[in-house]
Amino acid sequence: MKRRAFSVKRDANEPDIVAALEKVGATVRRMNWADLLVGFRGVNYVIEVKTEKGKLTDDQIVNFPAWRGQITIVRSVQGALWTIGAIK
Length: 88
Fold this sequence. Notes:
The chain is 26% helix and 23% strand. With 88 residues, it is of the alpha+beta class. Strands 1-2-3-4 form a 4-stranded mixed sheet. The N and C termini lie far apart (39 Å).
């Protein structure tokens, strides 16, 4: 199966989310097919950042289900920190 190329458009809230994740000690790497690969307390997370009204692109709708792991969509700093278990 040929992997499609994804655009690298970043959402406006991504820098704040990345900064908050790094502040709690997470390792964050930006990717192209999903926004972030986050390592925290020995666990890896694939995170797609969207603004409050942001929607998945057509490419994401088609290709994300092929990932045999979990991809979490986050819309806020709190959502990202909750996803990795840094807050309850």
